[in-house]
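Fill in residues.
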């Protein structure tokens, strides 16, 4: 098949967005579609998604992307998958989901995480190769919560899958996961790369309930007849195992490429529902940091400023771009408003499941524009906290994710952190990384690095404005002071 008539299809199952992107064999997007499956917040600190909503969204976006790009299904050479980490999907022997999937931001397992740290820190440190602390982000304490609170669900579950693995099961009928998603569960032994039996025993899950771990570039299977009828893909199309969102994003941003001697350290900044920063070499505590809510904070504000149906989880009547545009008319400092963006606990620089959001300084003189500006600035200040806590000195950041599409927000972030932001041709780097895994898996490239080196192109550079950065020094100091003053109250608030 001629290269100008051959494509790769990537499915990115995100926390709040399921996306399909078609790429040509030069890594250029030629078609795209997305849906926003509803997230349920049944109680404060809880966040969950119905797995069937991920599958329904996948069916819709694959159809829409193929039709919108006018690409016949026979021209798709392979399918790659990328997905949010840490969310657990319990399925029965037939692959049907047995309940909602708790998201990584769900804090209901706080007591289990604290118990694991307090009583079994040595086991955690030996198996995972990091400090003896289990946070609420990985899947391990969530599985312990299920064992303690929903024993019937545990007994009925044949396999616990990660979101992209659930979607791939529906596409191919095969059960598996990859090392990046397995590692993110907090249940994988760092030395062997296999499931840790001691940790599984600790959370009360039999090893047979976890999927086999296979290489991200290996072909898991092919699109079944049933999946073909639903999605519009051709039956028999190869589907690779894929990877977790962080791993795929680092590939799709080419963040692991070696730099020239003396060049500044380049990190990857992902702006999505949450945000994270990684130097690309390792996900150790000293080279990786993450927030709990970044894009989610803007989405929350968009719903509040929209209609009643939007506040209940429907389509917001005021788009994100409208909020950012209004915020751009407000001066640095949001006219005295300070926002702490801990709307679902906090992940970094120090994990705190009890952290809560704060909007300080309100008066009758403040309106929607000032609040929007405060949200953007507060998220940027939180990113600066995380960057400054890394054990390496970052010189520039390749910035990807949905937030990278907003020039005005990128300028605020650059001004607050005082570092240049590099924007690649494809900001949906997770999807591009999934396509690269598919390209390697079907033999188009010998390695992920070679494909990323050819496909990733930096097209824009956002430099910090010196005057604005100087003004933000005072704003950031106020942010840190507010954090220090209210942090002692988090535990009390978290117990309400």
């Amino acid at each position: 098949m001629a290269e100008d008539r051959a494509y790769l299809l990537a499915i990115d199952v995100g926390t709040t967005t399921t996306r399909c992107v078609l790429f040509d064999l030069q890594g250029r997007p030629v078609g795209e579609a997305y849906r926003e499956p509803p997230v349920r917040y049944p109680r404060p600190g809880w966040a969950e998604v119905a797995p069937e909503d991920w599958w329904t969204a996948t069916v819709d976006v694959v159809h829409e992307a193929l039709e919108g790009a006018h690409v016949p299904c026979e021209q798709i050479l392979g399918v790659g998958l990328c997905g949010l980490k840490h969310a657990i999907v319990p399925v029965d022997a037939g692959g049907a989901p047995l309940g909602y999937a708790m998201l990584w931001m769900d804090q209901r397992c706080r007591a289990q995480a604290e118990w694991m740290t307090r009583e079994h820190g040595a086991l955690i440190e030996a198996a995972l190769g990091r400090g003896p602390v289990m946070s609420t982000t990985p899947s391990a304490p969530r599985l312990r919560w299920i064992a303690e609170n929903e024993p019937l669900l545990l007994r009925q579950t044949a396999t616990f899958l990660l979101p992209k693995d659930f979607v791939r099961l529906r596409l191919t009928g095969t059960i598996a996961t990859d090392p990046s998603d397995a590692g993110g569960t907090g249940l994988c032994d760092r030395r062997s790369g296999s499931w840790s039996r001691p940790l599984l025993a600790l959370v009360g899950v039999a090893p047979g309930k976890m999927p086999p771990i296979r290489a991200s570039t290996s072909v898991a299977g092919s699109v079944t007849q049933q999946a073909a009828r639903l999605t519009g893909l051709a039956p028999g199309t190869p589907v690779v195992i894929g990877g977790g969102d962080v791993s795929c994003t680092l590939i799709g941003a080419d963040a692991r490429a070696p730099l020239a001697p003396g060049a500044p350290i380049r990190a990857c900044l992902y702006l999505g529902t949450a945000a994270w920063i990684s130097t690309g070499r390792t996900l150790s505590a000293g080279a990786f940091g993450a927030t709990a809510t970044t894009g989610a904070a803007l989405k929350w504000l968009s719903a509040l400023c929209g209609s009643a149906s939007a506040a209940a989880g429907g389509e917001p009547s005021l788009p994100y771009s409208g909020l950012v545009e209004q915020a751009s008319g407000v001066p640095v400092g949001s006219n005295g408003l300070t926002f702490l963006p801990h709307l679902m606990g906090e992940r970094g620089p120090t994990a705190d499941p009890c952290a809560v959001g704060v909007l300080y300084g309100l008066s009758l003189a403040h309106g929607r524009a000032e609040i929007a500006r405060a949200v953007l600035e507060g998220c940027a200040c939180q990113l600066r906290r995380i960057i400054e806590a890394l054990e390496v000195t970052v010189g520039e950041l390749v910035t990807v994710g949905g937030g990278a599409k907003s020039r005005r927000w990128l300028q605020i972030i650059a001004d607050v952190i005082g570092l240049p932001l590099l924007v690649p041709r494809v900001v949906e780097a997770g999807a591009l990384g999934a396509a690269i895994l598919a390209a390697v898996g079907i033999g188009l490239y010998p390695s992920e690095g070679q494909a990323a080196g050819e496909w990733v192109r930096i097209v824009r550079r956002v430099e910090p404005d010196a005057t604005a950065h100087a003004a933000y020094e005072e704003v950031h100091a106020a942010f840190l002071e507010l954090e220090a003053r209210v942090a002692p109250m988090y535990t009390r608030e978290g117990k309400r």
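Residues 308-316 have pLDDT under 50 and may be disordered.
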